[in-house]
Amino acid sequence: MIIASEPTIDLPLENLSFRQKLDLFHHLREELGFEMNPEPPDWHYGILKKREDRIARGEGTWIPIEDAFKSLKASLPPDRMPV
Known about the structure:
It is a single chain. The chain is mainly alpha-helical. The chain folds into 2 domains: 1-38, no CATH class; 39-76, no CATH class. 48% of the residues lie in helices and 5% in strands. It has 3 helices and 2 strands, in the order E-E-H-H-H. The chain has helices at residues 18-31, 42-56, 65-75, and strands at 2-3, 9-10. The chain has a two-stranded antiparallel ribbon with strand order 1-2. Strand 1 (2-3) and strand 2 (9-10) form a beta hairpin. The model has no long low-confidence stretch (mean pLDDT 83).
């Protein structure tokens, strides 16, 4: 991938694994000074409120976080598995 800048930047992103791209992303974010744990956007709170209301009405259930991660990992292709 060639990034249009002066001078141009030629990065072999298509040759990097998902893990390598993720490591690069984290490194650049730190170098640029971005906050690692930003405050969630306001719309997240609305979704959480709806879910809590469903639980309160008996229309939803909690599952252990480990089960949620197992389900998420099972849905990902092998090259996108988080470490």
